[in-house]
C-alpha cells in the first residue's frame, strides 16, 4: 500500500505541475506500477489490460478527430467568439459553454461532444479575461 500510495502521490504532483506532459505521466504511472510488481501486485498483463477496454478505445477515437478539428483553426475561431460573447463574466462563460454543448448533446452521445468541445472551452479559458481566476479572488 505504501508503494502504491507513493506512486499515486508522485502522479498527483506530476499532473498538477505538468513537469512532464500529461500523456507521458500517465504512461509512466502504468510502467511504474508494473515495474514495482513485487510491491504493487500489478502484473504486465493487468497493467496493459485497460488499453483493451471499449471505453478507452472510444475516448481515444474521439480525441483523434478533436485534435484534427483543433488543427483546422475552427476551435480557435469558435473559442474567440465565445470568449467575446462571455467577456469577463463567469456566468456568461458558463451560459456559452452550455449553449454550445447542450443542443449538440441532444442528438449525439456526450463522449464525442466532450472530446470536440474540450479544446473550445480551453480556448475560452485562455482568451477570457478571467483566465487564471485572478479577477475573482480565487
TrEMBL record:
<keyword id="KW-0813">Transport</keyword>
<keyword id="KW-0677">Repeat</keyword>
<dbReference type="GO" id="GO:0055085">
    <property type="term" value="P:transmembrane transport"/>
</dbReference>
<dbReference type="GO" id="GO:0005886">
    <property type="term" value="C:plasma membrane"/>
</dbReference>
<keyword id="KW-1133">Transmembrane helix</keyword>
<protein>
    <submittedName>
        <fullName>Anion permease</fullName>
    </submittedName>
</protein>
<keyword id="KW-0472">Membrane</keyword>
<dbReference type="InterPro" id="IPR051679">
    <property type="entry name" value="DASS-Related_Transporters"/>
</dbReference>
<feature type="domain" description="Citrate transporter-like">
    <location>
        <begin position="12"/>
        <end position="126"/>
    </location>
</feature>
<keyword id="KW-0812">Transmembrane</keyword>
<dbReference type="Pfam" id="PF03600">
    <property type="entry name" value="CitMHS"/>
</dbReference>
<dbReference type="InterPro" id="IPR004680">
    <property type="entry name" value="Cit_transptr-like_dom"/>
</dbReference>
